[in-house]
Design brief:
Blueprint lengths: L12 H14 L14 E4 L5 E8 L2 E5 L3 E2 L4 H14 L3 E8 L3 H6 L3 E12 L11 H12 L3 E5 L7 H16 L22 E6 L5 E10 L4 E9 L7 H15 L4 E8 L8 H13 L6 H9 L5 E10 L5 H11 L3 H20 L1
Parallel strand pairs: 3-5, 10-11
Antiparallel strand pairs: 1-2, 2-3, 2-4, 5-12, 6-11, 6-12, 7-8, 8-9, 9-10
């Protein structure tokens, strides 16, 4: 009751505009753009230009990506945020941080755990030649033989009710068939009513029915794009998503975009760092794969033969990975929290037993 609470829960339209300007200037992490989403709160630097996007969960400030500021100002911005969180009695956790910032986090007293690897493409040099991408080429050829075409939808230029209706239908179908509720916080949204800088690419059959779509979010001031939201119909033919991805990347390449990314493959090689958290993540990856299909997601992205796999980390302050930190990460990303996780595991277990009988 007596602690000096300074937590500010309200975000204004002016805050959002300021965030967008800072994103275009400093948002080099591929997940930077999710800071524009409505589920974020902001800490604005007092003595430096920059922001930290976060949500408060169970006494933990869970932050999305790295601080959005210049590398030179990052030490002071993080130090300010540590003070702010101590005043609010918050622990701190940054999710999906870049490897180049790990020495700074360590110097400032954070612990770290590898949380996966990100599939990065240098669009200037990337192509589908060679044996490693044979499966992608075959999938795209299959889709092309069926007459499937790709086009970009630009809602800021002209809204189309039919296109948006089909996007909504595909999303509802996709969510209905998921094993859990939709993840948030570390993922963007479709946001057709407020697209801002997002880009929408969709696949259509020869009857103009939409089969799938991908929403790309910018980073690095438009020098790169993340395939943030990927959804397709249940009956979509093989190659639909591959064709969308590659044609979108090719178009961006012609526009001068440098980087493309398929995002994080969660928990891949998480035990590389050792430690209790690394072993926990490895256990989840190996034993609880049915929850979000981590292995399948990694192997799907691996088929594209990315230019590089970059390590991504979770860093936390104080530097001990506690159950409270683990719970806060799950709760921030899954609106139904740990209860939803356990329910899915129970359903999966009962379903397996039923099949055995």
């Amino acid at each position: 009751i007596l602690k000096p609470l300074v937590y500010q829960p309200f975000v204004t339209a002016l805050d959002k505009e300021k965030v967008r300007k800072l994103l275009n200037k400093y948002g080099t992490n591929s997940v930077s753009y999710i800071t524009i989403e409505d589920d974020k709160k902001y800490y604005f630097g007092n003595n430096v230009e920059g922001i930290i996007a976060y949500t408060a969960v169970s006494g933990v400030a869970v932050c999305a990506g790295d601080p959005i500021c210049s590398d030179e100002n990052m030490p002071l911005l993080i130090t300010e945020f540590i003070t702010y969180c101590k005043q609010n009695n918050f622990d701190i956790c940054f999710c999906h941080t870049l490897e180049k910032h790990i020495p700074l986090y360590t110097f400032l007293g954070f612990g770290k755990t590898k949380c996966g690897e990100e599939a990065i493409f240098d669009l200037e040099t990337y192509n589908l030649t060679g044996g490693k991408t044979a499966k992608i080429r075959n999938a795209i050829n299959h889709a092309s033989a069926l007459g499937i075409t790709i086009s970009e939808y630009k809602p800021l230029v002209k809204r189309d009710k039919l296109i948006e209706q089909q996007i909504s239908e595909i999303s509802h179908e996709w969510l209905k068939n998921k094993n859990s509720s939709e993840l948030s916080f570390m993922l963007g949204t479709i946001s057709l009513d407020n697209p801002i800088d997002r880009r929408y690419f969709a696949a259509y059959d020869n009857k103009a029915q939409m089969l799938g779509f991908i929403v790309f979010s910018p980073f690095g001031g438009g020098k790169g794009y993340l395939a943030d939201i990927t959804r397709r119909r249940n009956n979509a033919p093989i190659g639909v998503m591959e064709k969308i991805t590659i044609e979108a990347f090719n178009k961006m390449k012609l526009e001068g975009v440098k980087w493309g990314t398929l995002g994080l493959a969660p928990l891949v090689n998480a035990a590389d760092d050792g430690g209790v958290a690394g072993k926990l993540f490895e256990f989840v990856y190996e034993k609880l794969n049915s929850f979000y299909g981590f292995k399948g997601l990694y192997h799907y992205k691996k088929k594209y033969s990315p230019t590089i796999w970059e390590n991504r980390y979770i860093v936390y302050y104080p530097k001990i990975f506690t159950p409270k930190i683990a719970y806060s990460i799950i709760k921030a990303q899954n609106p139904k929290g740990v209860g939803d996780f356990l329910l899915v595991q129970l359903k999966s277990f009962l379903g397996t037993k039923k099949e055995e009988v």
